[in-house]
From TrEMBL:
Belongs to the small GTPase superfamily. Ras family. Transmembrane segments: none annotated. It catalyses: GTP + H2O = GDP + phosphate + H(+). It comes from Cinara cedri. Keywords: Hydrolase. The chain holds residues 12 to 185 of 215 of the full protein. This is small monomeric GTPase. GO terms for molecular function: G protein activity; GTP binding. Its EC number is 3.6.5.2.
């Protein structure tokens, strides 16, 4: 018998090296390994309780080859929500998420969580918290500064919160 689990599909987007895989693995396993496959896009399926309801998370950990490679429309068509990641230590990665948002234009209206990763590397900071907050206002989404290297709970909250948004939009559209 096919299970009737509620599925929520999340695509994790961002420039190479910002910590997309580290964040995804942190959320799914609570672990931080430090080194991740840099070659391949990976799709995970994992059941997580959200406010007492079991949700099947499908997470697409995207893997652009370089700063120029933006997500294809297929990704936006597939996803219920996006986690957009930049690193506070990498100005170019901040510009990357801005460009990603531009390519979506108004065609795709998906819940977004904007995440600034590598918050442990304050001494190498290139993007201020305020800039992140301003961009989030522009995106009309939430903004969180995290460190996949150090945190578990706050990272889970990002995924759970964007999942709640998806569920709430679905309920409204029913
Ligand atoms: P991806 O290309 O976006 O998937 O990035 P990865 O998850 O492979 O991470 C790229 C590099 O950044 C790896 O060497 C990670 O160990 C490192 N990294 C990821 N998150 C953090 C973090 O929060 N702090 C620090 N200092 N390094 C991180
Ligand atoms: Mg990766």
């Amino acid at each position: 018998k096919k299970s009737s689990l509620t599925e929520v599909k999340i695509a994790v987007l961002g420039a190479p090296g910002v910590g997309k895989s580290a964040l995804t693995v942190r959320f799914l396993t609570k672990r931080y390994i430090g080194e991740y496959d840099h070659q391949a896009e990976t799709r995970y399926k994992h059941e997580v309780m959200v406010d007492g309801e079991p949700i099947l998370f499908e997470i697409l950990d995207t893997c652009p080859k370089n700063d120029e490679e933006l997500p294809l429309h297929d990704v936006y068509n597939w996803a219920d929500a996006l986690v957009m990641v930049f690193a506070i230590t990498d100005r170019r990665s901040f510009n990357y998420v801005r460009r990603v948002k531009q390519t979506m234009l108004d065609t795709f209206d998906l819940p977004v969580a904007l995440v600034a990763n590598k918050a442990d590397m304050v001494h190498l900071r290139q993007v201020s918290t305020e800039e992140g907050e301003i961009l989030a206002k522009d995106f009309e989404c939430c903004f969180t500064e995290v460190a996949a290297a150090e945190q578990v709970g706050q990272i889970a909250d990002v995924f759970l919160e964007v999942c709640r948004e998806v569920l709430s939009v679905r309920r409204k559209n029913k």
